[in-house]
Amino acid sequence: MSASYSTKSKLDDYFAEVNQGKEDMQAxxxxxxxxxxxxxxxxxxxxxxxxxxxxxxILIDTYIxxxxxxxxxxxxxxxxxxxxxxxxxxxxxxxxxxLPKAVTGTFSRQFIEGMNFTYPDPxxxxxxxxxxxxxxxxxxxxxxxxxxxxxxxxWVDCVLMLYAECSxxxxxxxxxxxxxxxxxxxxxxxxxxxxxxxxxxxKEHFGFSDGISQPIIKGLSKSKKELSGDNxxxxxxxxxxxxxxxxxxxxxxxxxxNPGEHTLPPLPGAEHKWDLGKNGTYxxxxxxxxxxxxxxxxxxxHSKEAAVTREEKAVKLGAKMIGRWPDGHPLVTCPSGTxxxxxxxxxxFNYTASDKDGVKCPxxxxxxxxxxxxxxxxxxxPQDSLVMSRxxxxxxxxxxxxxxxxxxxxxxxxxxxxRNTPAPHNRDDVHTQTPIVRGxxxxxxxxxxxxxxxxxxxxxxxxxxxxxLCNEVxxxxxxxxxxxQPDCHDFTTPQxxxxxxxxxxxxxxxxxGGAYFFLPGIRALNYMMSETSKINV
Length: 537
Description:
Blueprint: H1 8-21, E1 38-46, H2 49-63, E2 83-89, H3 91-96, H4 101-104, H5 109-113, E3 119-121, E4 124-129, H6 131-136, E5 158-164, H7 167-179, E6 185-192, E7 216-217, E8 232-233, E9 254-255, E10 274-275, E11 281-290, H8 292-302, H9 310-322, H10 352-355, H11 366-370, H12 382-390, E12 395-396, E13 399-401, H13 411-418, E14 439-446, H14 450-461, E15 491-493, E16 500-502, E17 509-519, H15 522-528
Parallel strand pairs: 7-8
Antiparallel strand pairs: 1-5, 1-6, 2-5, 3-4, 9-10, 11-14, 11-17, 12-14, 13-14, 15-16
């Protein structure tokens, strides 16, 4: 497999650099809070900037969780803080705080425009160019006009993210950090996550183990244990103010006049500019409703995969659409489903040497599209393709919401429940708002929204010709069909003899909310709440 990356000396410089920034860094960058089983995302609009700033200052001084462990008051058994609080802003939120255009205009175009950006056609003002919804596949049922938050009258300025070990502790934190002290803000949407059972494997609602494939940031504690160089990435892929996989700094927002007492660091390679992005990141938040009944009903009724029972056929097709078995084992290393219990890693594999034609893991499977690893891209060698894939990774921090369809998300019980029930008649009504029942709060951290999140969503997930396929998109997260693409209702499972093609594959997920946020460093947060920020020109 991949060669061992590291001797400690190769990582020492990264540890020194990242460690220096931890006091200034919100801890969500460094930790996924595996032992904080309850979470709440409070999506807010600023109604009075003066009052809101007073509230945010209290959060910064008292509640916001820094990455440096010495600042935590108490720890869980797994080494997380007992509770955690984070704060991030949309572009409209920065404007509401009073930051001048000379500052807000230095953020990335994607962040400024927002996730649902549209504009009138210059040649025909009556025609609306739906640039970003089309690029992301937010069309038809996914259309922002159907969203519960993040679009139209439901726009948001900031998100308050709260984490605790259990729901009781979380409610105390909500009361202390929000209900009792909030001012100058109004609630737009309350995103309540499903509380995980710490004694059970983490799953998403379709019943598959989740959170397996994550990049490891060089200089954070996990990079000491990571043996695969393929999974170790430069800090600048996810944290602004550090070098990325290109060996450069991702574009970072800045201020052009002296920030005074707030001591923002200088912007690398620029004179008389101070780095507002340092130790911060962009946070992509999309609420994705999962249609669990539709997913397993289709697999039970239509699977042609080789297996003894219809239930086994359904699970096998589901695994091929995901790219992993429900227990998390990848199809590439465990194609039969009977896996070696001694396998040390569920993430140490590539595609070219063992499965270049997709017989084990279909070329269009979800995990193969969203992280192609060394799968050969046009005109590139496997090694060059791996380098390319590394430059489009995302650090995921999402969680599921809503009650499971059945206890423990047991696939056998789900199949028993849905296998003979007909599909709802109104599923194809693209103008109807999808009810919020259960799904995924998809959250990822990136230093470049366009190069990382938007590239993966548009070029790899939503493109029908990915890996020389035809009329296929990502079977899990893409719409049917994306605007401007062919029919895209197909999914193919290559075989040793004759491939199996599935047609009229329904849409298994729907986007019901979303926005781009900036998760600032602590110095940047303090600067944004100061009067100095208003007069920057």
